[in-house]
Structures are given as C-alpha cells and as structure tokens.
Amino acid sequence: MATEGGGKEMNEIKTQFTTREGLYKLLPHSEYSRPNRVPFNSQGSNPVRVSFVNLNDQSGNGDRLCFNVGRELYFYIYKGVRKAADLSKPIDKRIYKGTQPTCHDFNHLTATAESVSLLVGFSAGQVQLIDPIKKETSKLFNEEGLLSSQNQANSPSGTVV
C-alpha cells in the first residue's frame, strides 16, 4: 500500500489497522487456527502448560505435544518450530467441566509409539492418568479432592493429610 506523508512516498505493508468496528490484525497460522480461542480477560489469563515427549517411532515424527487452554486439553504430533502443527486435527482432545487442568507431564520411561502415559493434575486436587494414544486407559486418583494445596493451610503441622 503506497501512502504519502510529508512529501515522501513510502511502500509499506501494514500488519494491523484500526477502524470504527475494531482492530484488524494479520495473525500467524498457528494463532489463527488455534481451536476455541479463549476470550480476552482483563482479570488475568488462564494458565497454559505445555508438555513434550519423544516416542521414537519409525516415521521420524516421534515428538508429541500436550497443552491445555482453560478447561481443554489437547494432544498433537509436534513437527518442530519450522512446520506448523495442524491444530484442527488433534490426536486427542478432552474438555473438563467441573475443574480445569493445572499441570501435566508424560512418563518418558514407558512411552512407546503405541502407548504413552500422561498424568494430569486438576484445580480441585484430582489427578488423572490417561493414554491419549490408546484412549482406553483412564484412572482418576483423589476423586474426593481430600488431598489438595488448600488442606496444607488447615493442617496443624503444615503437611498434607
């Protein structure tokens, strides 16, 4: 787009502009195709955690990526920083209603191309063991929420009861 200002001619490609309707911005593919974007919240943002694991499969695409956005948990094939992941096709996607994931990690010692163990911790104290590849293994621990960080303050010794 050519603009004139102060007698000088400039050739500039704009990446964003503002109109009465709002702000228009050129987004990178990874941000544009992100599933279910979380709306802007001025109070603070939901924590996002990312976990990686390498499965050493024969295809050479052994890296897997898990991340959470709010109450949603996604599991994808990770092809590196130079190739954008197809965010419209997750290997596994889970949406939690009563609580939200706060942390997760893979068991790197037992991970194979056919199965991988993923532990997910939740805001109410529960811990879930899932296999996002097989999608059949799922165990829930501390379902009652008896062990949580809030109980530490109420315990006389400061330890979790």
Element layout with pairings:
Layout: E1 2-5, E2 8-11, E3 16-19, E4 22-25, H1 29-32, E5 50-54, E6 63-69, E7 72-77, E8 92-95, E9 101-106, E10 118-122, E11 127-130, E12 138-141, H2 149-154
Antiparallel strand pairs: 1-2, 3-4, 5-6, 6-7, 7-8, 9-10, 10-11, 11-12
Structure, explained:
The protein has 161 residues and is mainly beta. The chain has one domain (29-38, 45-154). The protein is 6% helix and 35% strand. It has helices spanning 29-32, 149-154; strands at 2-5, 8-11, 16-19, 22-25, 50-54, 63-69, 72-77, 92-95, 101-106, 118-122, 127-130, 138-141. The longest helix has 6 residues, at 149-154. The N and C termini lie far apart (66 Å).
Main β-sheet, spatial strand arrangement: 5-6-7-8
Number of strands: 12
What is the overall silhouette?
flat
Spell out the helices and strands N to C: EEEEHEEEEEEEEH
CA distance, first residue to last residue? 66 Å
Q: Structural class, please? A: mainly beta
Roughly how many Å is the radius of gyration? 22 Å
Largest sheet: 4 strands, antiparallel
What share of residues are in beta strands? 35-45%
- Provide the low-confidence segments as ranges: 1-5, 151-161
Q: What helical percentage do the residues reach?
A: under 10%
How many domains? The number is 1
Organism: Sarcophilus harrisii (Tasmanian devil)
Keywords: Repeat, WD repeat
Protein name: WD repeat domain 20
InterPro entries: WD40/YVTN_repeat-like_dom_sf, WD_repeat_creC_regulators
